[in-house]
Write a structure and sequence with these properties.
This protein is an alpha/beta fold. The protein is 41% helix and 24% strand. The N and C termini lie far apart (82 Å). The chain binds arginine.
Length: 249
């Protein structure tokens, strides 16, 4: 009888332990928290300020998470690992001023766009490059690795002309120190980098037009949920308000 009791209580312990384990399991999955991957070197969309990641993407992501009743956790990773990480399910979504391209669509799904952008060219004020047409394959072009600036410049001028850096600020430092002749990067970060450094300017002619969207794992339901939230946030003026807070026309 005593033995029987012991077996029952052991079994009960096992069931309880299993229950606790599975409960923990579902808690740490993306059930009540959305994990966003970004690369916080890209003001005003995302940058680090006083040890905090701030910017347009962060504010929009927080507004979306709130609408979906979820907490938001942000991981700051290298830009060229975001799409692969989302594809593998390491992150629930990627939001980093990510341009929608046909190639990327093969690997991830994109939500509706939330912002428009252009690729800009930064040069030193006294540069021999004074328009996009002045750039040749003999120039050294600085880019952030894995960005559309990288992809377009490599297509147009060849891999040899393109020097890839981990992030935009490092590419801009290379321009200042004369290692590259220009930097091709998104217009708003370009403005921020030029404002933060002396002797640089942005060429008038833009290099390419693009749209930013959030990427999710292919086939994920999250795409519809985020689109619903985005629709409401566009309609009630929240998105415009967030963008206006960071970009003064
Ligand atoms: N829009 C460009 C792209 O999608 C650059 C984005 C870089 N974003 C960043 N957070 N560093 O390739």
């Amino acid at each position: 009888m005593k033995k029987m009791k012991k077996i029952v209580s052991l079994a009960l312990t096992a069931v309880l332990a299993f229950g606790v384990l599975t409960a923990c399991g579902s808690k740490s999955s993306s059930k009540d928290t959305l994990v966003m991957a970004t690369n916080a070197t890209f003001p005003p969309y995302e940058s680090v300020s006083n040890d905090k990641i701030v910017g347009i993407d962060v504010d929009i992501a927080n507004a979306i998470a709130k609408k979906l009743g979820k907490k938001l956790e942000i991981k700051d990773v290298s830009f060229d690992s975001i799409i692969a990480g989302v594809q593998q399910g390491k992150y629930d979504f990627g939001m980093a001023g990510i341009t929608v391209t046909e190639d990327r669509k093969k690997n991830v799904d994109f939500t509706d766009p939330y912002a428009k952008a252009v690729q800009s060219v930064i040069v030193k004020e006294d540069s021999t490059i004074q328009s996009v047409d002045d750039i040749t394959k003999d120039n050294k072009i600085g880019v952030q690795q894995g960005t559309t600036g990288d992809i377009y410049a490599s297509d147009d001028y060849g891999e040899d002309a393109v020097i890839k850096y981990n992030d935009g600020p490092t590419a801009v430092q290379a321009l200042i120190s004369g290692k590259v002749d220009c930097v091709i990067i998104d217009s708003e970060p370009a403005k921020a980098y030029v404002a933060a450094n002396q002797g640089l300017k942005i060429l008038d002619s833009a290099y390419a037009d693009e749209e930013y969207a959030i990427c999710v794992k292919k086939g994920s339901d999250l795409k519809g949920d985020i689109n619903d939230a985005l629709k409401e946030l566009k309609k009630d003026g929240t998105i415009d308000k967030i963008i206006a807070k960071y970009i003064k026309e």
